[in-house]
Structures are given as C-alpha cells and as structure tokens.
Amino acid sequence: MIKDYVYDEKNQLTLDIYEPNKIEAAIILIHGGGWFRGDKSKETALAERLTTDGFLVVAPNYRLAPDHLFPAAMDDLLKVYDWLAASDYPVKGKITALGSSSGGNLSIELALQKGIPAASWSGIIDLYDWVQQHPEVVPAMNQKPDFDKQASGKIDQDGANDAFYKWFILNYVGQDMERLKQADPLARVSNNSGPLFIANSLNELVPLSGVYKLQAALAEKGIPSENKLIKGTVHGEGYAEIAYQATVQFLKATI
C-alpha cells in the first residue's frame, strides 16, 4: 500500500493506494461520515478485498464541513479522478467509484459528472426536496460516542433518524437553502452521466425517495442503473456482504 500520497498540495489532502497483483480496473473508494467526519483509514478492509477482484483502489480524504461547505468535498473527488486518469497506472477508460452514505453521494457525483460507472451504498441523494417536505423535523446531531473507533459497517445501523439526517444535510451547506439546492445531485444528471448501481435498505437512515428520483432521472436520459433494496435497517457498509458481489459485477460489466 502507498499511504498518504498528497494529491492536493494546497489543501494538504492525501489518498491511499492499494495495488492488486494484476490491475483490471481502478476504483475510487470514498469514505462516509455525513460530510463532517470520517477518514480513508476506515476503508482498509474493503479496499483490500477489492484488490482481490483486480481493482487498483484509491481511497482519498476530502475536506469536511462545517469548515468546508459544499462544493468542497465534491470538488476534491473530481480532483482525485483527474489525478488518477492522468497517472501512469494502466486504467484509462477503466475507472469506477464506490462510496457509502456521504461517500455514496460523492460516488454518484463522479458518475454524473465524469461519466464513469459507480456504485452507491446508502448514498445521500434527496436533499433540498426532503428538507422542504419535512419542516416539522428538528435537526439534531447524533451524539453516539467513539465514531472514529467504530468500523464503518457498525455505524448508523438502527434505522431512520430524521433529526440527524436533516442535521448533517444542513451542516453540509451551512444552513443555506440555496446552496442545498445546488448540492442536490439530481440537477447534474445528463446524457453523458455514467451507469449507477444504487443500494439501500428499506428502513434505514437514508430515505428511499432519493433512490427512486435518481433512477427516474437517469432513465429519462437513457442512462442504465441497477437498484438493490435490502430488508431491514442496515446502512452503507453494514450490508457489504449482501451488496459486494453484485456491486463488483455491475462495475466490471459497465466499464
């Protein structure tokens, strides 16, 4: 593994690189954390597993809210893609992305803007409309301790938490509703967007409404997508064992 490679000197942002025995494709693996916490180090186990399927894995850190509001995190991931595409690795035309929760949102953005195949596990999609439709929900941060010590697959597995969902969405944009409208990924669906694999649990932290809206928008533009809905409340990497093989198959089939 190549650890802490600096891809953005100005902001001192780093990424980790996991190399397989033989490179078949590349994947940008994006950590979650509601855009306000999290770290690439949480992705080590999943990254190592992906290398066994022939993926060169790039796991970046990115700027976090509230110090850095939208579009900072999105811009950072676009920069990661540009760095990888221009690198000496033999991955031209074979770059994909995978992320969970806020990382799923950023993975979707890469598909929409760079035209690459991507997968989202519990990606945060329904932003502006959801907030507008839930004025009664009082935003509240999830105060559970030891977030940084927990594996990604153990976090936010207890089902819907509208107060927390609203809190971190608004935190991402500094409570600015106009900025929230701009952060909505649905606005960036185009004829040039890449195919998407979208997984979500039926009763989890992230509402299903975003999944349905995104699939409809993609279909309208003729962009293929695949949806995997999972029983229960598990969130993101909590259902990795269920979604992993289907995710890998989709990404390899759509490169």
From TrEMBL:
This is BD-FAE-like domain-containing protein. Residues 15-215 form the BD-FAE-like domain. GO terms for molecular function: hydrolase activity. It holds the Pfam family BD-FAE. It comes from the Bacteria. It comes from Enterococcus raffinosus ATCC 49464. The keyword Hydrolase applies. The keyword Cell inner membrane does not apply. Keywords: Hydrolase.
